[in-house]
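Hello K.,

You asked for the raw outputs rather than the summary table, so here they are, unedited. I folded two proteins back to back in the same session to keep the settings identical. This is the first:
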Amino acid sequence: MKKLEIEYRVLGMISTNTYFLINKETKEALVVDPADSAEYIMKQFELRGYKLCAILLTHGHFDHIYAADRLRGLSGAKIYAFEAEGALLADPYMNRSVAWADAMTLTPDEFFTDGQKVTLAGLDFTVLHTPGHTGGSCCYYFEDEEVLISGDTLFRETFGRTDLSTGSQAAMYTSLKRLFALPPATAVYPGHEEFTTIEHELRFNPAARALAD
C-alpha cells in the first residue's frame, strides 16, 4: 500500500468488520460500516491521533450502521451511502433493526452515484454500485492501493445473501461479474469474516465458476 493503512475491529451482534482507513501521510481517516460502539471507535481514533473525516456505508442493514448516527454526532463527520439505499436506511423493517435490536432509521448527509470518483481524507476511490445483497449496496475501490472494500457483496469463497428486502440473486451475479473483472492482485476486505483477493475468488468462489460456464 502507498499511503493507505487499514485497521479493523469486529463489532456488533453479527460480528461486522468495521474498517478504519487511514491516510498515513496526514493521519486523516475514514470509517466504513460502524457497526456498534461509537464511543469506542472515537477513543481508538483519539488514542492514535487520527482525525475522522467521513463515515462510509456499504449498505443499510442495521449491523453495518448501528453506531453511525452517534459517531456522526461525536465527530462531526458526514455519513455517505449509495443513492439507491435511502429507502432501506429509512425503514426499520427493511434495514432489519426492528428484528434484532431497537428500531432505527438513518439519513445520510450525502449520497454517492455509480462510478463516482471521490477524494476523502486525502484518499482517492471509486464508488461501485453492486446491488444484490440490497438494492443500494456498493463497494469502495481504491485503485491506486489495490484495495476493495466489498461490504456484504463479496466474501471469501462466497457472497452475500439475496433473500432480504431489495435483494436480488440476478443482480448479485451481475455485481460479482463486475468485481471479478478487477485486477487479480486486488485485496478484498469484506463486511464479515476473512479477507481475500480477487485472484483467490476467481479460483475458489462458486460464483466465479458459475459465471465462467
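The second followed immediately with the same parameters:
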Amino acid sequence: MSSINQIKEGFLFYEPKNYNEEQVKYRSAQFYHELNGRRSIRQFSAKEIPEGVLENMIKAAATAPSGAHKQPWFFGVITSPEMKKKVRDAAEKEEYENYHGRMSDNWLKDLEKFGTDWHKPFLEVAPALIVIFKQTYEETEEGKAKNYYVNESVGIAAGILVSAIHKAGLVTLTHTPSPMNFLADLLDRPKNEKPFLLLPVGFPEDDTQVPLLKRKGLNEIMKYY
C-alpha cells in the first residue's frame, strides 16, 4: 500500500459528502433561508417538548470544534417548575438592578425597541431552560489541566445549539442576566464551571409578535480580499 493511503495511528479517514456543484449551492442557500427565519422569542407556550429532542440538540451542540478537543462545556437542563421559579427569582433580582442603575442610558435606549424590562416570566413559562457553562479548566486526578480557547469553543457550541433549536421548530432567547453566578450556585456546579448563556427553550405562544428588525446586508458584513 502506498504511503498516501496509509492511515496514521489514532486517525481515521474523513468521509467527504461529495455533493456536486448544484447541490452545494442549493444546500448553502437552503440553510441560509431556514436560519434567516430565526428570531429571539420571549413568549413561550407551555406545550411540552417531545422526549429526546433536548438530548439531540445538545448532542448537536457538542459536535462543535474546541481548543485541543478539550470540549470545555456543560449543559444544565432545567425542567422542574420549582427550579425554574428559583432561576426566575434570582434572574429578576439581578435584572432589576441592571435596569435601575447598572445599565447606561445609551444601553437602555438601545433596548427600547424590544419593549423589555426586568420582568422575565418566560423563565417559568418555557418548558425547559438550558444553562451553558464554560469549563475554565479541567479537573483531573493529577489536578488542574488547562483548557484552550474556552470562550471561542463554547461560543461556537452555543451557536450550533441555537441553530439546532430552530431546526427542530422550537424557539429560544439568548438570555444573559448579569452577573450569572447564581446559576452555578443553584445547580451546584463545580468551581471550574462558569455560566456562559441561559436559553429558555420551547414552542412559541400563539400569535407571538416580534420586533420589526432588519439584518445588515452582505455588503456591510463581508468583503473579498
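The beta strands are 73-78, 128-135, 137-140, 143-146, 171-172, 193-202.

Happy to rerun anything if the numbers look odd on your end.

Regards,
P.
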